[in-house]
Amino acid sequence: MELLTYLLIGTVAGFAAGLFGVGGGLIVVPVLYIVFIQSGYGEAVSMHLALGTSLATIMVTSISSILAHNKNHAVLWLVVGQLTPGLILGSFGGAAIADTLSSQKLQLIIGIFSLLVGINMFYSAQTKSNLQQGQSINPYWHWFAGAIIGIASALFGIGGGSLTVPYLSRSGLTMQQAVGTSAACGLPIAVTGALGFMFFGAHEQIHIAHTIGYVHIYAFIGISIMSFITARQGAKVAHRLSPAMLKKCFACLLLFMSMYFLSKALLL
């Protein structure tokens, strides 16, 4: 029954990720948190488990995304290489920071982040981008930007797409290149972040079955299998619907999640 629950989460998260064009972490983290709380894991570790497990699932789903984008020559591997050192250091550091924060503070941080991303996505669905493409990329900023994106991604349990895509777009990449390159950047973030949550969680004496540190193995397997399959189906549906409507729908979902986490953080 437990594995069936995680398969269902993976089905929804993968489909939503493909449908809305963002990493499944924004869906997986709040849903896993609720499931872990209902399973009696307690407030002290449920949020940390949700973040670590989410990053672990992104390791699998990002590979599928990379293969798809690379076929369309949308991954700029030189830029990925320039960003990767910062991403690795940042995501491991983010896992270390998350380990020191209470569940209440993590919920507050994620609630604010979801609110900002939701508002930005809702606004961008109604406005046309005035970005001038073809600007030169400044490689000196990539290391620093990678570190910031890595830290934030580990704290939010995401692959960093909602942060990496805007940064790469402003660096002069086309939107297709920004999305494809961001997908490739999600792999080092997920691998290092997940390992970080395993490492730091292992020192916390977590007495929960089927876990390695802050990563729940059953949840990782179930979500990874189904999200890998359903992400492609979501992407197919997305091409038949209005991009503006999709953005508005996802923005509303993020705003709902934000209100949920902010209310819980303020009431704890």
TrEMBL record:
Q: Give the GO cellular component terms, alphabetically.
A: plasma membrane
Localization, UniProt = Cell membrane; Membrane
Domain of life where this protein originates? Bacteria
Cite the InterPro entries for this sequence.
Answer: TM_pro_TauE-like
Q: Where is it predominantly found?
A: membrane
User: Can the keyword Lipid metabolism be found in this entry's annotation?
Assistant: no
Designated name of the protein: Probable membrane transporter protein
Q: Say which species the protein is native to.
A: Snodgrassella alvi
